[in-house]
Amino acid sequence: MTAATEAELRLVEQQILARRPEHSIDPTLDRIADLVHLLGDPHRAYPVIHLTGTNGKTSTARMTQTLLHARGLRTGLFTSPHLNSMRERICVDGVPLSAERFVEVYREIEPYLQLVDSRHQVRLSFFEVLVAMAFAAFADAPVDVAVVEVGMGGTWDNTNVADGVVAVITPISIDHAKYLGDTVAKIAADKAGIIKPGAVAVIGQQPVEAAAELLRRASQVGASVAREGIEFGVLGRELAVGGQRLSIRGLLGEYHDLYLPLFGAHQAANAACALAAVEAFSGAQGSPDGSDQAGQDRGPDAGRDPGMAVRAAGRGTVPLDAELVAEAFAAMSSPGRLEVVRRSPLVLLDAAHNPGGMAVMAQALRESFGPAEVIAVLAVSADKDVAGILSELEPVAAAVVATGNSSDRSMAPDALADLAVAEFGPDRVHVAARLDDAIELAVGLADEAAALIGGPLAGLMPGEPGLGAGSGTLVLVTGSVVTVGDARLLLTGAGLADRQADGAGPVAGSER
Q1: CA torsion angle for 487, 489, 493, 496 (degrees, to 10)?
Q2: Is the alpha carbon torsion for 478, 479, 485, 489 positive or negative?
Q3: Cis before 345? omega within 30
Q4: What is the pTM of this model?
């Protein structure tokens, strides 16, 4: 990137950041609908696979994109938020927009931003601008299919101007209660808004009250339903070096001996949802390349019998090519999800930012890394259920270092430490004002513990985590997407978009 391009990119980023932040929600689709209409409705130029849920959306979105791309389709991918660079949010064929292209897309829509601002009492937000940029970039590419993750909720999320031919709902729990409701049922009712008439709803494992709301919405709009554990799901899984091996029953067939280089039962479930989504897309489109229009040849009972799922959606009844599926699974990644970024001691990054996410991360940590002395570095947003996060972290962490991240929403380290003491006790809580100091302190604590018990993760093969054996020490940096993004820069010296440009693999995000 030239100095001039970098300067222009920074200017554009500043202009976007000057708008209302994405966590400041004004629940209406009026502004984004006005904007995309002025842009020529780019979101209608390609079929969309739409994803919502509380946890697992980004991982599932990336897995879905990887499978689609492996089948020879040109893909768009929109996720949020980013770890290091706004460019991570908008990918074509799994690669973030280049700095030059990001600037170009913004400049192309900039006059329309000003026009929409003048028409409404509330200006377009940071998130609305990025959604419009993604839709426009995908139309210009052009892509064969766009995989679009909501920012928050569903019904009023700005991405919901698009009508997904497939709607994927990952597990729902309580988060963003201020905006979405204080019960799982209320949150599910909001997220169910992405299920559109004639679509296929791919539903991950849900609490009973969430499942009821999702099925109610599907019935109301005549959508077909595919449920994890009934129409599709994980048949078997076993630990493997660096990940796990899976057998999955999809909507169109069974797929065996799939190597997934990610840790935890939750990632296996995410992979099953992604596979079902791609099968549903194949069936709804009626051909492997997605050339036919969604919804053709749907039977009159397509939305009434959940078991009909894809077979009612179209002509696709042949399983996906098993070899392509296996290749795609082996290529899947989800940075910031129990990601190893340093060894000796082992340092993991995980963006768990609510109790539900912390719970599944803790389970995966126990399973894949065995009994270990875990020193957790924790920085969280003050508006989260911090007590709930600490409660889920405590059983797997020997000690916690309370700190802050670069977000203005970050809880003050001393306040976080006070809450941590209530859960961990005073002897297991440490404080560091800066994240770099916190990581250095945690590494020192891990080294001290390793000297007492025989070395970091002594029972694992050097450089080969994920066998679930042996006791040792490791450092876990967690609590927020921002925390993980900051730690990535500190520990690797490069942001995800820059690493992707160097061929380091796809990038990740998470819900706000």
Answers
A1: 120
A2: negative
A3: yes
A4: 0.88
Report how far residue 103's alpha carbon sits from residue 90's, in angstroms, rounded to the nearest whole number.
12
pLDDT digits (tens, 9 = 90+) for 112-134: 999 999 999 999 999 999 999 99
Conformation bin of residue 128: beta by default, left when phi > 0, alpha when psi is -120 to 50: alpha
Q: What is the DSSP letter of 217?
A: H
Give residue 511's pLDDT band: very low, low, confident or very high (50, 70, 90): very low
Tell me which residue range forms the domain holding 445.
339-501
* d(C-alpha 428, C-alpha 376), whole Å: 10
Alpha-carbon span 220 to 235, nearest angstrom: 31
What are 29's two structure tokens?
Answer: 């689709």
- Residue 160, in any domain of the structure: no
Contact in structure between 168 and 48 (CB atoms under 8 Å)? no
Which tens digit of pLDDT belongs to each residue from 490-499? 998 865 555 4
Rounded Cα distance, 72 and 65, in Å: 11
Rounded-to-integer distance, Cα 495 and Cα 341, Å: 13
Residue 382: inside a domain, yes or no? yes
pLDDT value at 300 more than 90 = no
pLDDT of residue 401 exceeding 80, the answer is: yes
Classify residue 278: in a domain, yes or no: no
State what percent of residues in the chain have pLDDT above 70: 85
Q: What share of the chain is helix, strand, coil (3-state, %, to 5)?
A: 45, 15, 40
Question: How much is the pLDDT for 306?
Answer: 35
Total structural domains within the chain? 1
Question: What pLDDT sits at residue 293?
Answer: 36
Q: Report the distance separating Cα 54 and Cα 367, nearest Å.
A: 23
CA–CA dist 166, 147 (Å, integer): 10
Instruction: Output the pLDDT for position 468.
Output: 53
Give pLDDT, residue 1: 80
Which residues in 228-372 belong to E strands, given as ranges?
Answer: 233-240, 243-249, 254-260, 339-342, 346-350
pLDDT band at 503 (very low <50, low <70, confident <90, very high): very low
Distance, in Å, from the CA atom of 349 to the CA atom of 342, rounded to the nearest integer, reads: 10
User: Cα(333)–Cα(61) distance, rounded to whole angstroms?
Assistant: 11
Q: Is the backbone peptide bond immediately before 426 cis, with ω within 30 degrees of 0? A: no
Q: Say whether 342 sits in a helix, a strand or coil.
A: strand
* Residue 228 located in a structural domain: no
CATH of the domain at 469: 3.90.190.20
